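Example record

The entry below shows one chain as it appears in the dataset: sequence first, then C-alpha cells.
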Amino acid sequence: MMTAMKSSTAKKSPIRVIVVDDSALIRKVLSDILNSDPGIEVIATAGDPIVARKKIREMNPDVVTLDIEMPKLDGLSFLERIMRLRPMPVVMVSALTERGSDVALEALEMGAVDALPKPKIDIENGLVDNRDMFVSVIKEAAKVTVFKGRRKSEDIAGLNFSNRRVPSSGHVIAIGASTGGVFALHEILGRLPADTPPVLVVQHITGTMIEKFTQRLNDNSRLNIVVAADGMRLMRGHAYVAPYDCHLKLGKSGGHFVARLVDEPPMSGHRPAVDALFSSIAAVARSAGTGVLLTGMGRDGANGMLEMRNAGATTVCQDEATSLIYGMPRAAVAIGAAQVELPLGDIAEFILRATSHDRAEEIA
C-alpha cells in the first residue's frame, strides 16, 4: 500500500525592507524594484528619519535602505543612531555614496553593509537599469548578523607565545578582510602602537576606493599606512594596503621583507586575494608571520591561513559574534586553520602579544 508523503519544505519568508528617502519618486521606484523579486517585500517607506525610526521600532525589518540628504536628520547621523541603539543591516542609497566617495567610506566605517549610488541623471530609469544590483545587495545584506557592541573575551589571557622563534629579519603581520572589514580594520589598526612590526592588508573593495580608504585608515592610526608598491621595503610602524586588481605578496630582498605586486589570475574570485597574501607569508616568513582573518563573505583566506599555521605562524580569526559576515572566518575555522577565534576588540592585543618577542628584541 502506498502512503502519501507530506513535503517538509517550508516556504521561506521574504526579506522585509523599509525604504527611507525624502523623495516620493525614489521611494516608489525602489519599492517597485525590490517588490519585483518574490524574495523581497517592502513593508514600509519613510520620508525622513523621524518617521523611519517609529516604523523600524514597530515593524522590525530585516534590512533598511537609507538616503543621506534628508530633512530633520541626515542619513549618516541616523545610521550612527541605528548602529548604536538598534543594530541592523543598512544599505545606503544616495547620490552622495558613489563608489570611492568619502561619504560611502564613512558609512561603511560606521557599519553600513554597502553604499550604492543613485544616478545623477534620469534617476528613475537609472535605478531600474540597476535592478539586479539592488536586489542582489539587499539579499546579501539580509544574511548579515550585525553585532551589538564590541564584546571582549577572557580567551586572550591564557595565550602563550613564549616558545615562538623569530628570525633576525623580524616579524610580519598579514590581515585579510571583506564585507565589514572597513569598520574592523579601523578598529584594529587604530589600536596598534607606532612600533608595531610591518602589516600587510588585503581588503576586498572596489578600485576607486583604495586610495581614500587607505588615507582614512592612516588618519585614524599611529601607523604610517600606504598603498603598497612593488619592491617596497617593509618597515616597522607601517602598514601596506593591497592596490586594486593585483595580488599583494610577501617577498624578500637582501635579507629584508619587501612587498611584491603580482599580476596572476584571481583566487576565490578575488584579486587581490587574501589566499595569495597568506600563502606567501607561509612560504617566506614561516614562524615569523601572524595571520588575521576578519569578517567577509565566501572562503578567501582559509586555505592560505592553513598554510600559515602549518608553517609555524600564529593565526587568529574574528569570531562570529562580532563579524558582520562570518563566512571567511567560518571557512578557516572549519579546516583547522585558526589557532584561536577572538572578538574584534581583542585582536589588536592578540597581535601585540604574538609579536611582543620581536618588538622587545628590537627595542632593546
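Notes for this example: The chain has two domains: 15-142, 165-363. The longest helix spans residues 24-35.
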